[in-house]
């Protein structure tokens, strides 16, 4: 599966989170969560505010933080993809309505990661390939 990142910071932070949490790429929920969270600068600066690495749980109180509309939409989507619960008001319409082009791309990639959706030319490929856009 081909996964693209916004920049090297996004890729580096994603890899760091996967390593710290000892996450398998088969843990699709957590991979999608880390993919979205590592794209948000506020999360990179203070990751423990959004995710507890000791317990492996998200902090839903972070939704009350001062976030832009796009950041809030991505955070809600990340939490929804992680938990599978509808507690985060993360509908497709509300998420994409608040996202610009780059973050829409992040949201689409996160959905692909979560549900293991391959592009048509990648069907049958088993590895995750990482690139920076």
Task: Explain the overall architecture.
The structure is a single chain. It is built from 6 helices and 4 strands; from the N terminus they run E-H-H-H-E-E-H-H-H-E. The protein has 133 residues and is mostly helical. The longest helix has 15 residues, at 69-83. The chain is globular. The mean pLDDT is 89.
Number of domains: 1
Head-to-tail CA distance between termini: 15 Å
Number of DSSP helices?
A: 6
Largest sheet: 2 strands, parallel
Helix content: 40-55%
- Largest sheet, spatial ordering of strands: 1-4
Uncertain stretches of 5 or more adjacent residues = none
Instruction: Tell me what portion of residues adopts beta-strand conformation.
Output: 5-15%
Q: What is the total tally of β strands?
A: 4
> What radius of gyration results from the CA coordinates?
14 Å
Rough outline = globular
Instruction: Report the order of strands and helices.
Output: EHHHEEHHHE
Structural class: mainly alpha
Q: What is the mean predicted local confidence, pLDDT?
A: 89
């Amino acid at each position: 599966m081909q996964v693209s990142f916004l920049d090297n910071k996004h890729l580096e932070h994603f890899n760091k989170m996967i390593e710290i949490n000892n996450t398998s790429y088969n843990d699709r929920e957590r991979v999608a969560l880390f993919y979205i969270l590592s794209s948000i600068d506020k999360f990179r600066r203070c990751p423990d505010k959004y995710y507890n690495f000791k317990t492996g749980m998200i902090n839903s109180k972070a939704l009350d933080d001062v976030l832009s509309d796009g950041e809030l939409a991505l955070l809600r989507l990340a939490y929804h993809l992680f938990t599978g619960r509808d507690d985060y008001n993360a509908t497709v319409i509300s998420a994409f309505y608040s996202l610009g082009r780059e973050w829409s791309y992040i949201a689409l990639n996160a959905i692909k990661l979560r549900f293991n959706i391959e592009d048509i030319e990648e069907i049958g490929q088993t590895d995750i390939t990482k690139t920076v856009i």
